[in-house]
Amino acid sequence: MRYANYVTGALVLFSAMQLAQADTLSVVKNRGYVECGVTTGFAGFSAPDDKGNWKGLDVDMCRAVAAAVLGDASKFKAVPLNSQQRFTALQSGEIDLLARNTTVTQQRDTALGAISAGVNYYDGQGFLVPKSLKVKSAKELDGATVCMQTGTSNENTMADWARANNIHYKPVVIEQFNEVVNAFASGRCDVFTTDASGLASIRISKMQNPDNYVVLPEIISKEPLGPFVRQGDDPWLNIVKWSLYAMIGAEELGITSKNVDEELKSANPNVQRLLGVTPGAGKNMGVDEKWAYNIIKQVGNYGESFERNVGMGSPLKIARGLNAQWTKGGLMYALPVR
Ligand SMILES: N[C@@H](CCC(=O)N[C@@H](CS)C(=O)NCC(=O)O)C(=O)O
């Protein structure tokens, strides 16, 4: 019921706004920065550091688009949004881009006036529990109180999974992220359910003693997370989509923020096209031929961003898993720039 209201409300707002800003590229160029929807603070994916600079794998999407369009990765404004607020902010034109652990689903990609621009993290929904609960498997959660956030895909997935597995649970659904976290930390609920990446982040950055908590082995859904833009603005959709592909493709080609200047001399035609040495890709999108060079130089390739923000070089220590390159058994596969 709650979810239905949220969807209906969003649709009403969408039709009222009627794509007020169809030409997002011009709007962004004139404004001089990208308005980028992120979370209210989710370590590793989108959170401000102690100096107030927004960092994370999703924030790198904001930075990549800023680098591609404006030549400067710092020219974006992070707009913090909770799960419930995100699609309305996109529909109303408050943001140019939603880059915030958002699962691509058929409904979101069609009926909300939003459209997916790719997947920057393949995830699945899981469960975080205190070790004191003495539960080793999600199958033992019958009778548990389960915390989750309003307006997430996690609400419905939890209900579907519980029904299928004949598990009865008491949902505690809260709109503000920090309030759900506090409800869980204080024992108001036994379990926190959301994307496994989110659970890793919550465990490390929000729990006073991470060692007292464990993520259960079951992953109950596919949660392909990625950026969204408004429907009806294909040139902008292309820019966001190809900014992500530039990062993924650069990793496949072995181009990094460190060696990108060297790579300008590469004899590989794929490298030459991506870096704008052979022009065309920039013109096709109405941006500078150095669009991908600027992304790679200032933000790094996908692997660099992954390691720095959520991988082994970060507190989260998440393995590449499904997010490895397709050449290494993962799902990250950039479409070719040619
Ligand atoms: N991938 C799921 C869940 C994403 C989500 O919003 N997760 C919560 C985690 S509990 C979150 O990011 N909260 C941060 C916030 O609201 O600022 C979805 O797209 O619905």
Automatic annotation (TrEMBL):
Keywords: Signal, Transport. InterPro entries: Bact_solute-bind_prot3, SBP_3_CS, Solute-binding_3/MltF_N. Residues 1-22 form the signal peptide. It comes from the Bacteria. GO terms for biological process: amino acid transport. Residues 33-263 form the Solute-binding protein family 3/N-terminal domain. It holds the Pfam family SBP_bac_3. Gene3D superfamilies: Periplasmic binding protein-like II. Belongs to the bacterial solute-binding protein 3 family. PANTHER family: AMINO ACID ABC TRANSPORTER PERMEASE, AMINO-ACID ABC TRANSPORTER-BINDING PROTEIN YHDW-RELATED. This is Amino acid ABC transporter substrate-binding protein (PAAT family). It comes from Paralcaligenes ureilyticus.
